[in-house]
């Protein structure tokens, strides 16, 4: 229902307008009346009307002054001007100030009034749609940043600034309810909201939806702040949880708690029954990260095409993640990262990650990860890295490609191939065109590029995974070969391709 404020100093005219049409049947409601502009301006602060129907000539403050004063205070509603014959210059000025239309009082018909109202409503709806698109865009960006911050990912200053801007916009909302559903491949939409919203929540002022990694979370901005306890329930066969959030942090803390509850269903540790509240009240777990040693063993088995052992190592890793109750998002991120590594080692394009990210059970994700690993490994038995015409140098190259993340020296490699160190140094450069250390650094930097482009691992973690002894040395070597720091390289890649989680 669109709210109308009627401003007219003549009681007869106000009464005539009020009785002219059946307002509610046309979607309008007169919520207030004023006899002059000053009184109207005070009522506008309290009533927040959508449309103001106002006379031009009134005592104390006329209609033109009312428009200007209201716009100066940030009022974005529509004005319909009432004027008499001979006042067309004032009506023209009113249109310049932003009025949507004007009506001649003496000859005003019901049809003219409805036409003016519908025109004002169309203008308002267009503005609302524009505001909704802007809010959705701000929300999509902010939700992506919140998602990353939940799991300890680094935010750059511009990302932090955008999130803070969204948080400030949200801080004045009377109430915020977060509803999270573990839907997997099921694409929930805002059409599901009425069935998810408890009656005690009252009217929703607006709603945003974020879908990623099999979960869908609704941010429901309420017109009041109800007394609601956190609740776990089942929605159309899907586990769901809802709780009030703090507008001060844009619901970040409540979202973390909701995801922890859904994580229990992911691990099969909870049964869904409507009305259960205890599980939703439990503080979130802060587990250990995936040990690099376990990932390295998995990658090593795949590089050697020991598919059976690789699958066994994956199962061990999944058992570890379940034991420490790693957050569902971190598990799926690990699965996606390993999947991309398998594809890269195999020299094949990575399959779309959707099936992995949408998994709703821990064993299901392991099964899919193993199956995709086996698919990548098919047909690789006869492949060899690019080699030279010297067998010992080829042996060294294969060793470097499999062990670049370890502490490797030319002296150790000379012992490995049973050759003199000085002679090997010259021979390696002659056969490859690069010194031994440059060749090794190239491998490490190329691997670092992959991690920077395809994962959210911290720069320090990436440096360790590709064999650099400390972060400062990693920064130095990476910049030497790319002319960019690791962080600059990652930002450049984001600018080109966009790596935020998918928008709703």
From TrEMBL:
Residues 394-492 form the HTH araC/xylS-type domain. The keyword Phosphoprotein applies. It comes from the Bacteria. InterPro entries: CheY-like_superfamily, Homeodomain-like_sf, HTH_AraC, HTH_AraC-typ_CS, Sig_transdc_resp-reg_receiver, Tscrpt_reg_AraC-type_HTH. Coiled coil: none annotated. Keywords: DNA-binding, Phosphoprotein, Transcription, Transcription regulation. PROSITE patterns: HTH_ARAC_FAMILY_1, HTH_ARAC_FAMILY_2, RESPONSE_REGULATORY. The keyword Secreted does not apply. The modification 4-aspartylphosphate is found at residue 55. Pfam families: HTH_18, Response_reg. GO terms for molecular function: DNA-binding transcription factor activity; sequence-specific DNA binding. One of its GO terms (biological process) is phosphorelay signal transduction system. SMART domains: HTH_ARAC, REC. This is AraC family transcriptional regulator. Residues 3-120 form the Response regulatory domain.
